[in-house]
Amino acid sequence: MSVIGALLLILVAGVVNGSYALPSKYMGRWRFENIWLQFALWTFVILPWTLMLLVEPDIIGIYRAAPSSLLRLMLAGGFAFGVGQVCFALAFDMIGMGLSFVINVGLGMSLGFLLPLLIQHPREIPTPFGLATLLGTALAILGLLFSNHAGRLRDRERKKVEAPGNMKGGALQARGRRHATGVLLTVLTGLTSAGQNAVFSMTAGLQQLAARMGADSFAASSILWPGFLSSAFVPFAFYTLYLHRRNRSFALYKDAGSAKYHFFAVLMGVGWYGSLALYSKASQMIGALGPLAGWPMFMALIILTSNFWGWRHGEWEDSGASAQRVIKWGLACLVGSVVVLGCGASLRG
Q1: What is residue 6's predicted lDDT score, i.e. its pLDDT?
Q2: 52 with 273: CB under 8 angstroms?
Q3: How far apart are CA 129 and CA 224, in angstroms?
Q4: CA-closest candidate to residue 193, choices 109, 273, 287, 93
Q5: pTM score of the predicted model
């Protein structure tokens, strides 16, 4: 029964995470830095610490009792993850919600599954589980290649529509560079997302310590995130505050209608961190294989949900039949990767 409950939690977590960025599409009066600084403040600082202090007031005592090696891994992984989230926010504006999530989450899914295998369980590589992991990773990479090609086809088709009357050659070249930059930024995000799951898997000792010190199961499963995400906030805050100063965008918080935008930022934070807390709990309910067995399902649901919203908001309109066909092949490869990785995890179990 606990496994069924865990799968339901992962289902909810994936759908919520795939939808968390949707409110940003309705915050047109704010600049990039306004939206994402408010998101980061709630997601990386306020919500993780508030929730953890409510369920485990002695979190600082647990951190103090933890081995320094675990704390260093937590902080270093969090900082790298924060850099990746800055990259993702930039890419989101460049190549759209659907394609950003496909590349980021697909790469994070495959490597997030592969890294714990290579680092923690290298002896498993020649087993059916290890071979399934390698195959699933290869399928995910193929899906990413299809998705990137679909994005290029989409931009090429739109150039044909816009070039005759609206866009000059320089603008067309700029759009091509923008797409390439967005893809590169999303790949960097995917690498740090994979590191997020790897750090979660490699700091299981912190969860065990929290349980021994009296934390309940939910608090123990989420004990990593306040410290990890606070470290992630540092690069995010540094970059967005720099943009605030450069663009003089602090004044936008006082504009008429900005109260609604603050609420949307809170919704984004609740969606992102809430889904992470649900995934952490589900992973713990599954057991030792939680970070392996639960991760691909979580990632697949994020991909499918975010692409649903991307299609609903016209990100693939005027993209042509070829681009739409190729992106569907990419999604099919990613879903196939999830099936293979999930079967591999069951073989190990």
Answers
A1: 76
A2: no
A3: 27
A4: 109
A5: 0.72
